[in-house]
Amino acid sequence: MTTAEKNIDTVPKQFEWIILCEFSDLQEDTVTPFELDDNRIAIYLVDSNVYATDNVCSHAFALLSDGWLEGTLIECPLHGAQFEITSGEVVQGPADRPITVFKTKVEDGQVLVRLPVE
């Protein structure tokens, strides 16, 4: 790996908070899909807490929002891989890579998610 490649890998990404929806639009124990530019995001409301992950399974292309949510576990509808939505960790294969988790916050009744910007 060249010095330039190392520098590219270590350059911190820039992030910004993006408003997705009103908190009142979310339903408890459900997954709501959103698309922002090239980002497919799944928003979860569990025990009044808002979580956000990639909406695409890391194993094969399937939308996690079409899967099953039980507590803080989301199951992919295609092959049954399960992920912990609080950390993105794989709980059950066949997936072997975690999904990306995004920070969320609720301000003035709006749900915001922290996304990388180019």
Structure description:
The chain has 118 residues and is mainly beta. It starts with a helix and ends with a strand. The chain has one helix at 3-10; strands spanning 14-22, 30-36, 39-46, 49-54, 68-70, 73-75, 82-84, 90-92, 101-102, 104-107, 110-117. It is globular and about 40 Å long. A four-stranded antiparallel sheet has the order 2-3-4-9, with no helix packed on it.
List the helices and strands and how they pair.
Blueprint (H helix, E strand, L loop, with lengths): L2 H8 L3 E9 L7 E7 L2 E8 L2 E6 L13 E3 L2 E3 L6 E3 L5 E3 L8 E2 L1 E4 L2 E8 L1
Antiparallel strand pairs: 1-11, 2-3, 3-4, 4-9, 5-6, 6-7, 7-8, 10-11
List keywords for this structure.
118 residues; globular; 4-stranded antiparallel sheet; mainly beta; 11 strands; 1 helix; single chain; disordered N terminus
Q: Structural class per helix/strand content? A: mainly beta
Q: Indicate the proportion of strand residues.
A: over 45%
Radius of gyration: 15 Å
H-E order: HEEEEEEEEEEE
Largest sheet: 4 strands, antiparallel
**Number of E-type strands:** 11
**Strand arrangement, major sheet:** 2-3-4-9
Low-confidence stretches: 1-8
Classify the helix fraction into a percent range. Answer: under 10%
Average pLDDT confidence is 88
Note the overall shape: globular
End-to-end Cα distance, whole Å, is: 23 Å
Count of individual helical segments:
1
